[in-house]
Amino acid sequence: MSIVRFENVFKEYMLGEQQVQALKGINLEIEEGVFLAIAGPSGSGKSTMLNLIGCIDTPSAGKVYINDQDISGKTPDQLSTLRARTIGFIFQTFNLFPVLSAEENVEYPLLQFKELGATERRERTVKFLDIVGLSKFAHHRPNQLSGGQRQRVAIARALVTHPKIILADEPTANLDHRTGEGILELMKEINRRDKTTFIFSTHDARVMAMADQVIRIEDGQLIKGVFV
């Protein structure tokens, strides 16, 4: 079953007075539960693809379906709701709130779920900090944590909403080799155990080697589609 589907997708935007065609007729299906890498040089269109999958943007033409919902024509509020309940994000710069503890950073996205009470938020937060091995650091702020620990907090924050898809934008770029390997192994373990779909935008050969599938994109077009 596909959790992401692109049907003849084009994306154009203005850069100053110049119109840029970022995606050119993309057709693609991403199966649920896959550990997938989108690879390509800078400016190839991989970040644009990630933004469409993440409901941050909509296509100029064509259709994008996320969890069987067509994002074309949805309002920003509708996209925000779909994004909050379907997608988790992991960034290379971690994007943690510096004034909040690890525990508070993980809990933060749950505050928009009005159906969750304080007890359930707390239980989920404790559970996912434990999954990423940071229970002992729950009350530490980001500046008291190593880069690898901060990325683990970011992974827990992405998982705590029970998303179907995790989007990871160069998640190992700011980590040393050994720490990056540990982060990738953790994400692969979560993918195998929980069948959460992981989609990476990456230049990292380690990510591509560990992926179930690699999509290569260049100049807004897929190169030889998808391969295992």
- Helix content range: 25-40%
CATH class division: Alpha Beta
Name the strands of the widest sheet in spatial order.
Answer: 6-7-8-3-9-10
Number of strands: 10
- Described by the principal axes of the CA atoms, the overall outline is globular
Number of helices: 7
Computed CA radius of gyration, to the nearest angstrom:
18 Å
How many domains make up the coordinates?
Answer: 1
Ranges where pLDDT stays below 50 over 5 or more residues in a row are: none
Overview of this structure, please?
- The protein has 228 residues and is α/β, with parallel strands linked by helices.
- It has one domain (33-59, 73-227): Rossmann fold.
- The protein has helices spanning 46-53, 76-86, 102-107, 118-131, 147-159, 177-194, 205-210, and strands at 2-15, 18-31, 35-39, 61-66, 69-70, 87-91, 165-169, 197-202, 213-218, 221-227.
- The protein has a 6-stranded mixed beta sheet with strand order 6-7-8-3-9-10. Strands 2-1-4-5 form a 4-stranded antiparallel beta sheet.
- A hairpin with a 2-residue loop joins strand 9 and strand 10.
- It is globular.
